[in-house]
Amino acid sequence: MPDPLNPTQRSYCMSQVRSRNTKPEMFIRSKLYKMGYRFRIHVKSLPGKPDIVLKKYKTVVFVNGCFWHGHSCKKGKLPSTNVDFWKDKIEKNIHRDATNERNLKKIGWNVVIIWECNLENGLSMLVQKLDAAIEKI
Questions:
Q1: pLDDT tens digits, residue range 10-33?
Q2: pTM surpassing 0.85?
Q3: Which of the following CATH numbers is that of domain 19-136: 3.40.960.10, 1.10.10.10, 3.40.50.720, 3.10.20.30?
Q4: 113 CB neighbour count, 10 Å cutoff
Q5: What's the CA gap between 88 and 18, in Å, rounded?
């Protein structure tokens, strides 16, 4: 199926997609801050530049968009145009995410991944993991 947008329109649409400070990420950060957690964001010295870094608990949080990171939910569905390009791109993202997670665990970090489609459930899971990390300290 051909792209319904011309190249200029498609370029504009794609330029509006943000990679950091997304609404799901801001939601999680706001909730964590209100709960009393203090953190850094997008720490370049760690593999994958995690969205949220809770150094005190040696925990990093990735807030993943379902489409961009290949989640198996309805939001993670591939588009019907330019399928080969998107399939290749998403597979590379999945591979990169797995490598970053493995590298973070090797250097002793807890890794929490919150999917866009599970924001509320993801937040409760994150709090449980933080509570477990606090008990270890």
A1: 566 656 566 677 888 898 899 889
A2: no
A3: 3.40.960.10
A4: 18
A5: 20
